């Protein structure tokens, strides 16, 4: 496949002359690699969630172990597509357990299974190549739309059992998924293969101890497993990077006590998810996706509508037990501060506990979910009998809901019940906060109207909103004493607390002494967003040629430097590049760092000192080309490009003496979903800092991660990259990772995919119809938290449309929401090939919506089109010079300068 990339011989030569490779020239494993694997291992143990345990775990040290299941020898380290990481090695479960001293006695079965898998994989690879020829595209595109599915495992026989000579079996189910296609609610994917069911039943009958390990990247149906007798423990391993086997051994052997908690609700049946019927391919329509469940995503739905899940949000067992006691709740300076004592009440194992704080907002005129996560904290490692006091805080204003009718965030008057516990179902009411007057916390404007949105999608937004609510003015409350508390005898703390949430346990019942605390409406500030209207033209009186060095030493401003650039130069800066001569693997683009996903324009490097920024995926580590070669003149040679099952070989006739070989081995960290399940934000910061150090080593400026789309439905192919169904967890995780990366000077993150990118089928053209309230409370909230808390260097827009407008072209999303409302100061870029016709990439099928417009990106403030093509540069230049509308958008010189200045600011931040 040839991609019309922004590339020409002159630019290539320019680049060649300024090339500097950062990669190592020795193939030896480095100290950094070893240290980072240890660091990842230390965190990854906390990412696993123990779902079931009847005492089977932990296993006795050493001894014989029967190991079965597809993931035993083919342990999946992370999902496929751009989120994959090319590592030097991948420790499988078989290797990890053997290393930990276990004797695997099912070698015969593992070998047979290996032969079966190899045969199926070979057949798939042959088909992939032929199919690519048939479609006239690159094989990697075939692997995107039709990825290899792990086959059903080889039969387990009585003979295998006899030969295993042990009473303990570990069975590993694995599932893979990735970008470009969604999963299916069918056997071998969301459900068990019949073979897996039979085999688990056989193991349950044959072994005294059976441990089921889930080496998966997203929720699957576990109800069927619940019905199989004899399975003593179920451990959600997920996909933990290239040290997965060692981490699993740590947990199975009890070296590490699992302390992860679910960040999703696991339903009893797929149909129980409110978006199940129409999600992606389920209803045959992949063009329009109606988010009819509104704000009721995940536990917000299950708890509110009394649908009992199999495992609730926040759930996870430990090898030990904990007692959680709220010691104090105070409200001070707009913050709710809770002191919570956690004690390890077990006698054998040390462990960590996650304390979760939920609030139930009053049923006012706006509908409210039963409860929402407000904050959480994790203890350190507590020895048996040891206690730790946690202080957990959150802002009162963060409990506000969005009212479409008055375009404001609103705290409605009434009782806010705080619940504290170890999962969303296992909580105790800890305080009631009473607000006597409704308060608008923030006055905005509605940005995402959709004429096609069915009326019922607004039911939770405007239904019973009265004028009282919208007219609410913050009143003086004479004598209001913020935080004044009185302990009262409380029987169920009001109606909402007495209702039982979907998960069953946990509603505060019976008589408990909990404080009632008064919130003063007058203390809660009402903020009003200021929106940028027209963009101002930058001018300068300086006549000498300004450079980035002048900006850095304060001789001129970024705006002045920008004002000196021609329209063509400005357009070039706003259109990124892709290596065109090396191969056809997308996301394998950078000249200076082979395997990086692309870079920004280097055109003004020599004249103005504006270097190109190098961008690499994300989010499970750095995705780079592990081995590349140059000739003795330093020119990059083709070969070594890799993306999953697609690999470009080096020319077999290359003489070693005439080439230089370079190595770029990065650490694969646990997938995003796993990281979030640790609920350990300081650990995530450490992981982020580790990635930042690898960026320093390999010369990467912006990491195309973290990814924080909401798990709206378990079948989204990229859920493994994302954190949770909950926006608070997602936003906090993304902020922690960003803080870590950005603690390395000049290195930045790119939070993606902004926004409502919940589906992979037809991903370039799918239109997400979402109410303004659901967008703001669920789909944008995580991005808002990440921007406000960690100011990432960059944002990447998504492929999809929101309510009829491509996110890449949405000035309301990028300028009004991200920049004006949240104060985002960085650069914004598109997702790859968003604004160019590439039928081979985006699909030949007749699609309902057009590709996003290049001019629309400039209009919206989407500063860099990645990777972009010559047509993008030409369209922008022509639109600005002629004043003509192109593809539906007019753009002025001021618009173009605005985008280019954002790029220059980012270059400034990343140039050290
Ligand atoms: C993905 C992005 C990724 C980009 C560059 C796209 O296909 O959607 O997440 O960062 O490729 O590899």
Ligands, deduplicated:
beta-D-glucopyranose
Which CATH architecture of the largest domain would you pick?
A: Alpha-Beta Barrel
Structural class: alpha/beta
Q: Any idea of the CATH class of the largest domain?
A: Alpha Beta
What do we call the CATH topology of the largest domain?
TIM Barrel
GO molecular function, one term: hydrolase activity, hydrolyzing O-glycosyl compounds
Keywords: Hydrolase
Protein name: Glycosyl hydrolase family 3 N-terminal domain protein
Organism: Marvinbryantia formatexigens DSM 14469
Folded structure, characterized:
- There is one protein chain.
- This protein has 912 residues and is of the alpha/beta class.
- It folds into 4 domains: 9-14 and 568-624 and 668-910, TIM Barrel, CATH 3.20.20.300; 45-258, Glycoside hydrolase family 3 C-terminal domain (Rossmann fold, 3-Layer(aba) Sandwich), CATH 3.40.50.1700; 310-528, Immunoglobulin-like (Sandwich); 627-663, no CATH class.
- Helix content is 28%, strand content 18%.
- It contains 27 helices and 33 strands.
- Strand 5, helix 8 and strand 6 form a beta-alpha-beta unit.
Keyword list:
Glycosyl hydrolase family 3 N-terminal domain protein; hydrolase; 912 residues; Glyco_hydro_3_C_sf; 4 domains; Ig-like_fold; hydrolase activity, hydrolyzing O-glycosyl compounds; TIM Barrel; 6-stranded mixed sheet; Rossmann fold
